[in-house]
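User: Could you check the structure of this?
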Amino acid sequence: MADLNNDGVNDTGRGPVEHTTIVETDRGGGGGGVLAAVILVIALLLLAYMFRDSLGFGNKTTEVKVPDSINVNVN
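Assistant: Sure, the predicted structure tokens are below.
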């Protein structure tokens, strides 16, 4: 109550004012876990690319040796 001249009467002409506070709890989040998973997959792919020679994936040529003839002895 706003009693501006201390006479006990509300000088603003209005009654008590009610205030309402709205708290929103549904934020629609959940994207943080997906983002973390995507970053983890990218990091693993990057590490696999960097260490491909150590992992055995870095051979530039594949050489297969096939003999000219095969000798079979049947006794």
